[in-house]
Prior knowledge:
Distance between the termini: 46 Å
CATH architecture: Up-down Bundle
Largest sheet: none
Order of helices and strands: HHHHHHHHHHHHHHHHH
Number of helices: 17
CATH topology: Growth Hormone, Chain: A
Number of strands: 0
Amino acid sequence: MGAGGFVAGDVKNYPGKVTRHVVNACVLGAMGGLIFGYDLGISGGVTSMAPFLNKFFPDVYRKEALDTSTNQYCKFNDMGLTLFTSSLYLAALIASFGASYITRTWGRKRTMLLGGIIFFIGAALNAGAVDLSMLIAGRILLGVGVGFSTQSVPLYVSEMAPQKHRGAFNIVFQLAITIGIFIANLVNYLTPKIAGNQAWRYSLGGATIPAALICLSALKLDDTPNTLLEQGKAEKAREILRKIRGLNDKEIEAEFQDLVTASEAAKQVEHPWTRILKRQYRPQLTMAVAIPFFQQLTGMNVVMFYAPVLLQSIGFENNASLLSTVITGAVNILATGVSIYGSDKSGRRSLFLSGGAVMFVFQVIKNYL
């Protein structure tokens, strides 16, 4: 487990400015979020493109394009097509377990670089795919890259950000995910008008851009003080902390000493996974598991993955279904922007309860329409 900036539950307000180095870390976080968001949004649009279906899933293409009946039921029922979408997320799930260990031992910076490289290779394979096996291999590599990035990038941003701005900086990662989804929706909408039958290659290959940016950023930026302390580089950690906070040695001393204490305490824990299962941590563990679990059960990610296909199945034309996802993505960005403003102002709990209430109301309304 990574060292934190607090000890014994005593939350302190450390001094610190929003320096250029912190802003750069925020930009890196945005690239990591863009990677994940782009892949969330791109697959649904691509699977609604006739040339893509004709090349890799001809049975689905025949049912979708040549069956003129009004019955849309099960036209997209194909194991290969399901594997195309799900292989990325299954690979990301498995990779995230290994990424946790690598992030702790190699450091956040190296893990981000490795994730960016793997992601770039996967996107390139997808863009140049000539058969289904090449397409699935690329998706699996994309999943590994996503697993590494989502494990290391938020942690990197959190450790670099000043304590009083940490909430807003952490939500930047989520904002970048929503921007990535929006960009993917926009790319899916525009590329068929520009590239014709090869539009799907441009859509899938577009993921190489954020992957290249995260690689370049990871090469340029410093590692976090927490990582350096875990590696036994105390003086280097002090130097980096001074630089990212824009303060002198005396002003950063309190935060630095707490980081040292937390790092030493973390090293004494032989079995961290056993420790979090203890009774005293069960409420936090329960909420940490339950919140994302029930968020998935709302069906939001199904909409993100399959929105164009779902809309086509209820009668939308291909162009209209892709445009509708662009609008959905724009609303998603707007809502995330509001949460950035409110996270440090109103607190995370108020934001969480407000979001849950809104979701509940609209789930009820949707079920009665």
